[in-house]
Amino acid sequence: MKYKFTPRQYFTYFFSKFGNLFNSFYPIPKRKYGISVMIRVKNEEQWIAVSLSSLKGFADEVIIVDNGSTDHTINEILKVKSSLPFPIILRKNSSPDICQISNEALSLTSYRWIMRWDADFIAYTSGYRNIIKLRKYLLSLNQNNYYLIYPIMINFAGDLFHLQNKYELHSEGYIHTYYPALKYIKRGKFEFLKVPFFFNIKRISTIHFIHIGTAKSLDKLLYRFFWLKWLKEKDFDKYPTVNKFIEKEAKEKWDSASFESIIKKLFYGIICKLKKYDIAEFGDYPELIKQMLKNPPFRIIYKNGKPYSRSDF
């Protein structure tokens, strides 16, 4: 299946062809030639170990900024750390500002290439999608130019056997070369990496990793849904934590104090849009999660031939 880039992505891609003509006026910073991976985490104990393991052969270093995890995320990182061929730089930052966290991670990188990675991204480690091929491609590009790269990934939804219809694939500028003025800023309720006009924008058609997406536990889905709303309202004095904000939303808008009942209502909105994952269309799973498919933590339940619920409800 071919990914359709958004109008904004097409515009920036087209414009970069002209802006890139001026790149020679901006000297390339002296940095080690390799790849830094930056990850922001909070309560990612389920996937972080597998995610890090999938980066073997790709990353030269991994920067992790923890935003106050209260589960076993840090323990999972430390358990897998000794088996990884790259160093891990671990920092803590409890700020509610995701841009501040991203910019701290960015400032800690030391290589020419930087990739923003999430704790629920899993790379392919074999076959034609092997992420090592992505590394070779990046390092083969002209060292005297600046780049912003849009890779494509598969988005899972509900469980590891479904995707959300019309949102099966996703692409953002996750990979870029270093430049001192780079900075993450807010665009609406989302963060956005602001890059100079002279960056050469490229798109990669081969998929090298997947996104677990909404194939997660109910509490993770609840946190994700309300976290963006909490950040957008910026009333941190009144609601210092996202849990306090959820309690307010539960009473005011959902007529319920039960987190579980809220997320079930939200999840039913996801279920009705699901389609089955077709290996013939999207390719096989990454090697590192194939074992999990034999005994998944939850699965979508069907009724009358349509997605109806999930096994953990």
Question: Can you give a write-up of this model?
Answer:
- With 313 residues, this protein is an alpha/beta fold.
- It has 2 domains: 7-211, Spore Coat Polysaccharide Biosynthesis Protein SpsA, Chain A; 218-310, no CATH class.
- It contains 10 helices and 15 strands.
- The strands form 4 sheets. Strands 1, 2, 3, 4, 5, 6, 8, 9 and 12 form a 9-stranded mixed sheet that branches.
- A hairpin with a 2-residue loop joins strand 10 (183-187) and strand 11 (190-194).
- Helix 6 (218-233) crosses helix 7 (242-252) and helix 6 (218-233) crosses helix 8.
- It is globular and about 60 Å long.
Q: Given the structure, what is the number of helices?
A: 10
Poorly predicted tracts of residues: none
| CATH C-level class of the largest domain | Alpha Beta
CA-based gyration radius? 20 Å
Helix content: 25-40%
Give the name of the CATH architecture of the largest domain: Alpha-Beta Complex
User: What is the number of domains?
Assistant: 2
Q: Give the terminus-to-terminus CA distance.
A: 32 Å
Number of strands: 15
Characterize the biggest β-sheet.
9 strands, mixed
SSE order, as H and E? HEHEHEHEEHEEEEEEEHHHEHHEE
Any idea of the CATH topology of the largest domain?
Spore Coat Polysaccharide Biosynthesis Protein SpsA, Chain A
Beta content comes to: 25-35%
What is the typical, i.e. mean, pLDDT? 89
Query: What is the SS-derived class?
Result: alpha/beta
